């Protein structure tokens, strides 16, 4: 199946999944405690992000299908093969990151993971990669510790 059709299907599936998630969270019985977040807030935030990402994927794919010139079959196959290699590499990197979290902790493994992920995605501006890795780790840490009250 061609990449553009796979992207359309992926975007549509993500949108449907997010809508299903929103529906499911609306059926939860939640007591109204004053001054606290309900258990629906975090799942709905995740489903909203999934919905936005699915809409972006679907929109970009449809835009490219209707406005761009056609690529040759060989070029398309080369891009799909390269994409599959990147997906496999990021999957392996993520698995290594998950196991390294226990051994080395969040504050050490996350910047390394972010740096290597950017390297896999083709970023080559080293200073930018270091800054994004460090600032991204700090933002994630503050989000989970301060806002979500997760203790590491």
UniProtKB/TrEMBL annotation:
This is DUF1468 domain-containing protein. It comes from the Bacteria. InterPro entries: DUF1468. It holds the Pfam family TctB. The keyword Repeat does not apply. Signal peptide: none annotated. Residues 9-151 form the DUF1468 domain. Keywords: Membrane, Transmembrane, Transmembrane helix. The chain crosses the membrane at residues 42-63, 84-100, 129-149.
């Amino acid at each position: 199946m061609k990449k553009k059709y796979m992207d359309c299907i992926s975007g549509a599936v993500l949108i449907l999944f997010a809508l299903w998630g929103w529906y499911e969270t609306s059926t939860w019985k939640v007591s109204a405690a004053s001054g606290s977040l309900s258990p629906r807030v975090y799942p709905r935030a995740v489903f909203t992000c999934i919905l936005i990402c699915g809409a972006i994927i679907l929109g970009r794919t449809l835009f490219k299908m209707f406005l761009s010139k056609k690529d040759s079959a060989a070029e398309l196959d080369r891009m799909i093969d390269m994409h599959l290699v990147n997906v496999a590499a990021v999957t392996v990197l993520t698995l290594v990151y998950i196991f390294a979290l226990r051994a080395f902790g969040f504050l050490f493994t996350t910047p390394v993971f972010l740096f290597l992920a950017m390297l896999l995605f083709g970023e080559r501006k080293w200073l930018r990669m270091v800054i994004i890795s460090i600032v991204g780790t700090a933002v994630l840490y503050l989000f989970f510790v301060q806002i979500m009250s997760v203790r590491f």
